[in-house]
Amino acid sequence: MIIPRRRALAAIGAALSAPAIAQTQPSSTQPASTQPIRCVCGSSPGSITDLIARIVQPGLSRRLGQPVVVDNRPGAGGNLAAEVLARAAPDGQTIMVISGGIMTLNPYLYRELAFDPARDIKLVSRITAGGFLLAVPASIGVEDVDGLIAHLRRKGDAANYGSPGIGFAMHVGSEVFLNAVGAKAVHIPYRGSAAAINALVAGEVDFVFDSRGPLLPHLQSGKAKVIANGGSLPDIVHPDLPRLADRWPEVVVQSWTAVAAPAALPAQLVRRLDDAMRETLAEPEVVAQLRRVGNGPAYIGPEDFVRFYAEERERAARGVRIAGVQPQ
After folding, report:
1. Are residues 44 and 125 in the same domain?
2. Where in the sequence is the signal peptide annotated (predicted)?
3. Taking burial as the number of CB atoms within 10 A of a residue's CB, which of 79, 195, 197, 209 is the most buried?
């Protein structure tokens, strides 16, 4: 039986909200405070980032020896929550499960930010990373990327693509893809992924980049077809799915999440938080829960994050230029 995605996410969210029994010993480096740690989240309850935060919440609580409380602060593309983190005392009492777009795209999309992501936020541990999937309507008979390129060139000025909105990673990534393959298509922004994907299966647009979750019902019905993985890592469900970056290295269309802290967090507390996250992501049940919401663990630590983040910021800056998105 196929469970609708909304019901599945709600069930997972409800399960994750239940108190966990502490079994893992906390880290040997104990904090001075026994107060709950606030984990801010820039999206609403039930969103993917929120679910990821709640999946890692029990393991972090056990290992840090303090309750971790998720504090949802949606708004302004996640900037409201990130500002709370950036202005927090660097004492380990405030952390954030942050999405990559806040750290990479938002500095180029918002004319005025109350914080500087690179200066004010410390990326501690990457939690997940996954490529957006390149999907086409089954009705156009395209089987692979070369077929899509040929299709777009045949349609010429009539070719188009959909996205959840202007400035989203799927919009910017689509423009980078078109630039790399030498094709053109008109961008049609919709209000969210569901509307863009509905337009895809109706044959109103020629392709979209999006996550597996929103695409899944239409993949199962045979109305849409995934032809490539936009990420830098193999797809967690179909590891043999072709990666665009293998042919066009500049085409990386992906999302990621991380646990972050105020930039001035002392090194010993960074290590402590990183250790807790790394060990949590090794728990089989955590791995299974992340896969159920469409994200596999993709841990990297603070040192590797410096290089990864620099690459992602460079990709975002180039993509925004190609897409011609103006800051608001």
Report:
1. yes
2. 1-22
3. 209
